[in-house]
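@channel anyone free to eyeball this complex?
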Amino acid sequence: MDFSELGEFGFIDWIRCSYPSSSPSVIKGIGDDAAVLSFSNDLVLLITTDQLIEGFHFRLGETDGEKLGRKALAVNLSDIAAMGGYPIGYTVSLGIPSKRIPFDFVDSFYRGLTALGEMIGVELLGGDTSESGDRLFISITLLGKALKNKVVYRAGGQEGDLIYVSGWLGEAALGFHLLEKGISKKGKENIFFRYLCPIPRVKEGQLLAEKNLPRAMIDISDGLLADLNHLLEQSGLGAEIELSRLPLSPDFQLWTKEYGFDPLSLALEGGEDYELLFCVAPEKSKEVEKLSQEVSLPFTCIGKLIRGTKGIWIKDAKGVIAPVLPKGYNHFKSR
Amino acid sequence: MDFSELGEFGFIDWIRCSYPSSSPSVIKGIGDDAAVLSFSNDLVLLITTDQLIEGFHFRLGETDGEKLGRKALAVNLSDIAAMGGYPIGYTVSLGIPSKRIPFDFVDSFYRGLTALGEMIGVELLGGDTSESGDRLFISITLLGKALKNKVVYRAGGQEGDLIYVSGWLGEAALGFHLLEKGISKKGKENIFFRYLCPIPRVKEGQLLAEKNLPRAMIDISDGLLADLNHLLEQSGLGAEIELSRLPLSPDFQLWTKEYGFDPLSLALEGGEDYELLFCVAPEKSKEVEKLSQEVSLPFTCIGKLIRGTKGIWIKDAKGVIAPVLPKGYNHFKSR
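replying in thread with the prediction:
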């Protein structure tokens, strides 16, 4: 066996199958946005970890310390949001190439990190720092809590459920590609911001869960198709997505056209949007739309869960339905 | 400001002072072996993070996957042990140079990790894996719990308290130096094992705390003097250590002599012993000795806490007392 055969998700499956949790206090171990632990009669503890490695998740020339700090926490907050949870506090492991990275950069990293933390009400609890030689290595572990009967998992979707997505798709991936091409940020700061400094949908995830709206939920980190596929695998269902319904912002449409990117490919496979993807019983669609207005963020119905066929089926503008592969970012695999 | 001025501990102090926790649910944030969070009326949650970075904390040619996995978890377990806590579960961030490190190595890493986890009764809860290019990065975050009134902190020692240390000192540092010199492991496997695969004193920490014996406790990761100094800073006291009382095993004495190492320097400054260092009221010394017999591990009184003078004072075999600098391992600083 080697890593390029397995890929990131094959590797995670391998760990999950090789080392299943045996303790009754582990309600959900590996294989969801966060692990869920029984802690008291009605409360559960949530825990999630995400790392950012220089050269693979970010490049120093493309961001600054403050944005990187915000992003490192945001990607973890997004996982707690996808469970409908309330983040509590986090630890930070930093491997610092101290000969190359100035103290000021790390100073602004902590400023960004803690500024977002304060905004959300989540505490810096501790961490570990060491010399790392060449690459900046960041790993954050975030704790959260939730009422046991309000936690939303990737599993739980049912046939006919409507599939919703929060916010807009593809902008983070567009920001990434514009940066790669060295295109000026002027006039498109919002697009770059979506990649460099995503806003986790914490409040939205909590409100959705409180109102018992989603039967299944995940955040979009690897790409819409890849993450929808993770959700489908856990629910044992397929999905039909209507291309014409994908929420694409006017700016996104403008700049993809201007620079010759395929908007659908970015929206479907791009990744790093950190939006919420969730499945709702059809009779609750009115409530979802009402909540969307209350939080001033679009929740867009992009399709539905289907039985009898696995995987994802795409309906194009002409009504033609075809299966797609759930492509997205996958460490260890060439794309 | 730069990293070499601050050093690892100056950097941690800088974070602690710049970003103090503000939530009443954080009983102890940065600055102890683990953070302590209020979670229910009588229970607290403990959380700690420790990373191992290739080239700085280990070299692949000197260990194997299984030992590395055990050590990565052990150093975290040792932090929970030093609070008198009960470990629950852990997450693992792995940055893997997948072109260089074979899958078998990572397989055996997880085998070692989970074997120690099972022995202690602690669950693998999740993690994150990605490509890291050149170095293997490991960061583990461990959760634990404890009764609120049983947690032992670094602070709390009182004048006249006896200072105890578990097990033996200096062996891990000796193992490290023997490895560095390429000296054969034959006949000294136990010494190498102490460096490559330390045994965390989890049960011992729990029993000490249950019986309300230590008023302050820390684990020895950076070296006896450095860690004692961390404890003293929190208690606002000084310490007097008697050299003749340091627990040095016969094997340790044999091999330091054979290979020309200064045993006292290794025992005082070596680091990575992962033994417990704790302070006990003199009237409880009999109880400590009784517990030591019950767990079949020496708890050795090596000195006492003193008031009126800060820092560490060493009494040598002739009874001469002199102050020492708390040297030990310190990332970002040249030694």
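from a first look: Chain A has two domains: 32-150, 162-324.
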